[in-house]
Write a structure and sequence with these properties.
252 residues; alpha/beta; Collagenase (Catalytic Domain); 2 domains; 9 strands; 35% helix; binds zinc ion
Length: 252
């Protein structure tokens, strides 16, 4: 019985997904983009809770400015990104299955959309994008699982460190996931983290090619050599190239 109900719920979510799919696809960049950020205490630690309590919207200013500036560079006019820090949510989004089959990935994306629908309250308004920021205490968790975002539904599950020292790097991750919701694709090798040449570079014509000084936002990492890379410390070490600008619709 319960299983049937669950299948029914998933099917009805699928229907809503299908009906709304067309609407989400092309963003009108002349309109303001409202980004709602919901923190989640993902590891249940008191330290994580303390970190979440002191969070404020200033912690995301660099991300907001990065997107305003890069959009202006391609469009000649900046996109008005408005970030809002929403309620802390008691429940973590469904975990992304690892090495998922296509079917598992579809089921997960439906569960995630169902989670988003369940969490939404009318007081949250009508955000363009909703990101769930899952915070982990770096003393307890040394490596974070991959974050994921859906273009259809405009939601993202973003894994971050609950630490002031990591705040600038968190903004890189938030920006990357936000751009996924507008159709930007990954430009790094998922197995090694190495940015893909030339798509994942901001200076593919630089001589000598290595080391690159910047990461491309969807390339994720700074290529130090053909096989070595490092994570940028902050958005000051990140650019957004033409390939990404075309994907999100800032460049024709
Ligand atoms: Zn990605």
């Amino acid at each position: 019985m319960w299983k049937k109900i669950r299948i029914l719920i998933l099917l009805s979510v699928l229907l809503v997904v299908a009906v709304n799919a067309w609407r989400d696809q092309n963003q009108n960049w002349d309109l303001p983009v409202l980004v709602l950020l919901h923190p989640v205490n993902a590891d249940g630690q008191t330290t994580t809770e303390q970190y979440i309590r002191q969070l404020n919207i200033e912690n995301f200013k660099d991300s907001q400015n990065f997107l305003a500036e890069t959009s202006a560079a391609y469009r000649g006019k900046k996109v008005d990104f408005i970030y809002q820090l929403g309620r802390e949510l008691p429940q973590i989004p469904p975990k992304v299955p690892e090495n998922a089959t296509a079917l598992q990935a579809i089921v997960w994306s439906l569960k995630f959309r169902y989670y988003a629908w369940k969490q939404h309250q009318s007081s949250d308004g009508r955000p363009t994008v909703t990101l769930y920021l899952n915070y982990y205490d770096p003393q307890q968790t040394s490596a974070l699982k991959h974050s994921t975002a859906l273009e259809k539904g405009k939601i993202g599950s973003v894994n971050l460190f609950a630490s002031t020292a990591q705040a600038a790097q968190n903004e890189v991750v938030v920006t990357h996931e936000l751009l996924h919701t507008f159709g930007a694709t990954d430009k790094y090798d998922l197995a090694t983290g190495q940015p893909i040449y030339p798509l994942g570079y901001t200076q593919p014509e630089q001589q000598p090619l290595y080391p690159q000084r910047q990461a491309e936002i969807m390339g994720g990492y700074i290529a130090l050599s053909a096989t070595q890379n490092k994570m940028p410390d902050s958005l000051t070490q990140v650019g957004l190239n033409k390939a990404t600008a075309i994907e999100v619709g800032w460049l024709k």
